[in-house]
Write a structure and sequence with these properties.
CATH class: Alpha Beta
Strand content: 5-15%
Low-confidence stretches: 27-40, 341-346
Order of helices and strands: EHEHEHEHEHEHHEEHHH
Number of helices: 10
Helix content: 25-40%
Structural class: alpha/beta
Distance between the termini: 35 Å
Mean pLDDT: 85
Radius of gyration: 19 Å
Largest sheet: 8 strands, mixed
């Protein structure tokens, strides 16, 4: 394969204990209110443990520095997650687990810590709504602050702890203070923005009206510039304004037809290049078993995914694809994704 993959996004499961209004990825039998049918409706079964580990082994041979993002749904709902993490630790594979870190998943998180020697990377969702913190009488604010405190409580248990902040029109005014508070705690922030499903082939977002989208206004620019100027601890800091502000509200062109550097592995083991869109032409027979074995399979994937992109894509704001592009173009190095220099005090 002539192209090198730098980031792999794993949808280890589409099951989730939450039903966030902006997310369409989870497979929840009780979620019957979706406007569009989702790819999750067609997934018969999840990958077995051996399938995940075999895929990780092959990817390690392909690129020893590849960074793996273990998404859900909620990945802690997989009973075998500890086996996957132990394999990553033993094989020096770089990863982060993205969890909603809610009260309901705390027993699962504790079980994970009991069964692994260490957790190298963990990313926890935090809502930017902490203006009154513990003193607020607003239930949502109190829940958000409780989540913030749970995240801070993990500092001594996780080597690379990251806060995933999903920003909407209603909460962006609180973004700066949250990132500042997290920076004081030594926690990095991964800032993403509410995305939109622009047609029925968008698999990731559940937003269709656009009312919560963040537009590139002067006010938004000032908030992001303040984060940048104050050198707060965020992913993509060096190119934060240029890359993130420039694609708001959802107009990223990933240029996936130009070559592969980022892949998505769905819960059933099938592989595609786009986390957001599956499409209709992308072959279902390209999976974690054969993508590195059969000749020209990746080129086939690029060809058909490009057709789907041309037919269905109307832009998104997927920041992970920006990160892998920057690694490919040598604007950042893989070590920055795991904050190796920060942890070593360099």
């Amino acid at each position: 394969m002539k192209d090198k993959i730098h980031i792999a996004s794993w949808l280890l499961t589409r099951k989730c204990n939450l039903q966030c209004s902006y997310c369409g990825i989870s497979r929840n039998p009780r979620a019957s209110s979706r406007i569009y049918p989702r790819l999750s409706d067609y997934i018969a079964e999840e990958m077995k443990t051996e399938t995940v580990i075999s895929g990780l082994y092959d990817m390690k041979k392909h690129n020893p520095d590849m960074f793996h993002i273990f998404y859900g749904g909620e990945p802690l709902l997989r009973k075998d997650l500890y086996k996957i993490i132990n394999f990553c630790n033993d094989s020096n594979i770089h990863y982060t687990i993205i969890t909603n870190n809610t009260e309901e998943v705390q027993p699962l998180l504790n079980k994970l810590f009991d069964k692994v020697e260490y957790v190298s990377g963990l990313t926890s969702s935090v809502d930017p709504l902490l203006y009154d913190k513990a003193y607020s009488t607003d239930d949502r604010v109190k829940k958000t602050y409780a989540g913030f405190k749970r995240l801070v409580g993990l500092k001594n248990k996780v080597k690379d702890l990251v806060a995933e902040i999903t920003v909407s029109k209603d909460n962006i005014q609180y973004l700066y203070q949250l990132v500042k508070d997290l920076t004081k705690e030594g926690i990095s922030s991964d800032i993403t923005f509410v995305d939109v499903a622009k047609n029925e082939f968008y698999d990731f977002s559940n937003v269709i009206d656009g009312n919560q989208l963040v537009f590139p206004t002067d006010e938004v620019h000032d908030i992001l510039m303040k984060i940048y100027d104050d050198k707060l601890n965020v992913h993509l800091h060096r190119n934060f304004i240029e890359n993130v502000f420039g694609i708001l509200p959802a107009k990223l062109d990933c240029k996936l037809e130009e070559g592969i550097h980022n892949i998505t592995i769905d819960a059933d083991g099938t592989v595609r290049l786009c986390l957001r869109i599956r499409g209709t032409e992308t072959p279902r027979n390209i999976n974690i078993h054969n993508m590195f074995i059969e000749k020209d399979l990746i080129e086939t994937l690029i060809h058909y995914q490009a057709i789907d992109k041309h037919t269905y894509c109307l832009g998104c704001n997927w920041t992970c694809i920006i990160m892998s592009q920057m690694i490919r173009d040598s604007l950042i190095i893989s070590e920055e994704l795991i904050h190796k220099k920060v942890r070593q005090g360099e």
